[in-house]
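okkk here we go again. third time trying to get the coenzyme A bound version out, last two times i messed up the smiles copy paste (missing a bracket lol). double checked this time i swear
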Amino acid sequence: MDETKVEIDGELVMRTIAMPADTNSNGDIFGGWVLSQMDLGGGIIAKSNSPAGRAVTVSIDSMSFINSIKVGDMVSCYAKLIHRGRTSMKIQIEAWTYSYTSQETKHVTQGIFTYVAIDADGKSCQLKPE
Ligand SMILES: CC(C)(COP(=O)(O)OP(=O)(O)OC[C@H]1O[C@@H](n2cnc3c(N)ncnc32)[C@H](O)[C@@H]1OP(=O)(O)O)[C@@H](O)C(=O)NCCC(=O)NCCS
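finally!!
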């Protein structure tokens, strides 16, 4: 199934350059690295909705790797809150690359992560009012 999008959806939450240390055995960027960038980016939105400014990831509801990421690509993550529960939030996160050599922009990943707001003791707590 081709899930490639043509339009970015969400706010920019993370931007970095893919480095040689983050490659897999094929020489492309390791999926776990991009997943971790997405988790950090989604966490920025999750923290901003938590009264104590703390949140944890509880599940990755979906995750698709659509195109490979090459060393040197600029990687940007865009995130959007798509569902608010009492203490939990579902956040859609997508990653896009920009190649400085080909000057091409590509949609590379798409996922939905669930975060829970936590208090100072690490217990789940009600989200900030909208
Ligand atoms: C997140 C945590 C605090 C929740 O504990 P809890 O309060 O006992 O959990 P609850 O069962 O009351 O669920 C709290 C909320 O999370 C949701 N939730 C819990 N587990 C979930 C899962 N696997 N998938 C989706 N949602 C989940 C519940 O539906 C509930 O949502 P709501 O309040 O919006 O209705 C606890 O499970 C935890 O600390 N997990 C470890 C998190 C972690 O270390 N993550 C990795 C590093 S960030």
